[in-house]
Amino acid sequence: MTTNARSSVRSWFALAVLTVAGAMTCSALIASNMGHVSSVTLYKAGDSLPEGGVSKSGKNTINLPYAIGPNIVTAKDLMDDITLNNVAFLERFVEATDGLEIYTGRKGSPLQSLNLAAGECYYLTMSTTTFYTIVGNDKPSYAVALNSAQSGVSKTGTNFVSLPLNTTVTTAKALIDDIGFANVANIQRFIRATDGLETYTGRKGSPNVDFPISNEECYFVVMNPNPNSPVNYTASHY
């Protein structure tokens, strides 16, 4: 083999190694950036729901990973990622008043901006039924502050909670126990067919049976009076 031929082989081999290493690095970056993926269908008013019935108003809860993005920081970013024309508006629960703050993403919206927060849940009211894939990362050590009733902080101790996608909590009873049974008055989930709430207390005589926890929805956690409020809750996870 000539000197030039050997040089060509060495160059080809070096290029192949770099190419493979680059591909492996790229794959690792993609995998680490993706973290957890969840796919949901957000239904508009009148459309049939998988749980039965039809959507009353097109309102859905959306369970976001604790680190969504990296380019989704605000409510407007989220609505654009879903497709702005498909989303009528987003609502955030305000603990101090038990009311809802509305953001439309359009000119004239009562809010100019609304930053998304880890562990916080949102309502989305849809104009068009939309299949949406959520990509992000969960922070295993992240603790959500669950407030008991306290003037100026929480009117009734109600918290609208987004759970991490990698949680191992699978039922409302398990969620109550994971937070601390003595700390929690009840867990509530939103019912899209009625725009009402289903309540589970975990106690004997609870009006409802235990219900499953799903990555596709969020939950209201109502806390008992607690002198050490807030309870900083890190969900059990894999």
What can you see in these coordinates?
This protein has a four-stranded antiparallel β-sheet, covered by helices on one side. A four-stranded antiparallel β-sheet has the order 9-12-10-11, with helices on one face. It has helices spanning 3-34, 75-82, 172-179; strands at 36-42, 59-62, 67-68, 87-94, 99-103, 122-126, 130-137, 144-146, 158-161, 184-191, 196-200, 219-223, 231-233. The chain has one domain. By secondary structure, the protein is of the alpha+beta class. The longest helix has 32 residues, at 3-34. β10 (184-191) and β11 form a beta hairpin. 29% of the residues are buried. It is globular and about 45 Å long.
What's the arrangement of secondary structure elements?
Layout: H1 3-34, E1 36-42, E2 59-62, E3 67-68, H2 75-82, E4 87-94, E5 99-103, E6 122-126, E7 130-137, E8 144-146, E9 158-161, H3 172-179, E10 184-191, E11 196-200, E12 219-223, E13 231-233
Antiparallel strand pairs: 1-7, 2-6, 3-7, 4-5, 4-6, 8-13, 9-12, 10-11, 10-12
Quick recap:
The protein has 238 residues and is an alpha+beta fold. The chain has helices spanning 3-34, 75-82, 172-179, and strands at residues 36-42, 59-62, 67-68, 87-94, 99-103, 122-126, 130-137, 144-146, 158-161, 184-191, 196-200, 219-223, 231-233.
Quantity of strands, as a count: 13
- The shape is globular
Averaging pLDDT over every residue, what do you get?
85
How are strands sequenced across the largest beta sheet? Answer: 2-6-4-5
Structural class determined from secondary elements: alpha+beta
Q: State the low-pLDDT regions, or none.
A: 2-34
